[in-house]
Amino acid sequence: MMLTQQQIAAIHRANLDNLFRMTSGIVEGVDKLAALNIQVGRSGLADLRNVTLQAIAVRESQEWFALHGSLIASATEKMQAWSQQVFDVVAATQAELGRYARAGWDAQVSQARTLAGDVAKDAPSGNGAATAAVDQAINATSALVETFQKSGEQSIAFTRSNFEAAAALASNATKRATGQHDRTAKR
User: Fold this and answer.
1) Residues contacting residue 170 through CB under 8 Å, at least 6 positions apart
2) Percent of the chain beyond pLDDT 70?
3) Domain tally for the chain?
4) Who's near 91: CB < 8 A, 6+ residues apart?
5) Residue 69 near residue 178 (C-beta atoms within 8 A)
6) Distance of alpha carbon 76 from alpha carbon 87, whole angstroms
7) What's the rounded Cα separation, in Å, for the pair 25 and 31?
8) pLDDT the model gives residue 145
9) Geometric angle at alpha carbon 72, from 71 and 77, rounded to 5°
10) pLDDT tier at 2 (50, 70, 90 boundaries)?
11) Tally of CB atoms within 10 A around 47
12) pLDDT digits (tens, 9 = 90+) for 24-75
């Protein structure tokens, strides 16, 4: 069975629509990252101004050590928050792309099944084994794609939990270090 020009055009349109949806999702993710980085840059400039003014006002070494400790803690917290937001944007973009890819895959599988069914109808009798083999190949490939998708989702969940654990450890280490630094400065 041959595909008609309308069927071929419809397939191309569906593929282009999927491509543009995916591209739009990527651009949206990049836009979110750019906005986040601009926000961090502005905040960093404001923090720099405040820190400079505080440093100018320091009169004694204990004040300097206290300022230093608070700056380290603040910078660590801000870096962790920024990293978490970047991770969230990247994970959301990846999930959206995964949905688009899955929708495209499902459409391709549907088209392949339809084509295989049409070929089987027009084929001479006795082609049941070939039709079953094509069906089995489509099912196996679909199962493989599903496995890859689940592995990707598990990988993101694993990475998120490791990121959160590392952030908690870094935060605790910073608090301990600034606490020790403060105690040393008071002596």
Assistant:
1) 76, 80
2) 92
3) 1
4) 156, 160
5) yes
6) 16
7) 10
8) 83
9) 100
10) low
11) 14
12) 999 999 999 999 999 999 999 999 899 889 988 888 888 888 888 888 888 8
Please, is 145 exposed, middle or buried when counting C-beta atoms within 10 Å of its C-beta (0-12, 13-18, 19+)?
Answer: middle
Report yes or no: 111 and 122 within 8 Å, Cβ to Cβ: no
**How deeply is 91 buried, as exposed, middle or buried, from its count of CB atoms within 10 A (0-12, 13-18, 19+)?**
middle
Domain that holds residue 99: 5-186
pLDDT given for residue 172 in this prediction: 76
The whole-angstrom separation of Cα 50 and Cα 56 is 10
Structure tokens at 17: 């629509």
Helix (H) or strand (E) holding 105: helix 61-122
Is the pLDDT higher at 170 or at 77? 77
Task: Report the alpha-carbon distance of residue 59 to residue 52 in Å, rounded.
Answer: 14
Place of tokens 């490939």: 141
CB 138 within 8 A of CB 113: yes
Tokens 């099944």 belong to 113
Q: In Å, how far are 1, 131, 132, 175 from 115, measured between CA atoms?
A: 8, 11, 14, 64
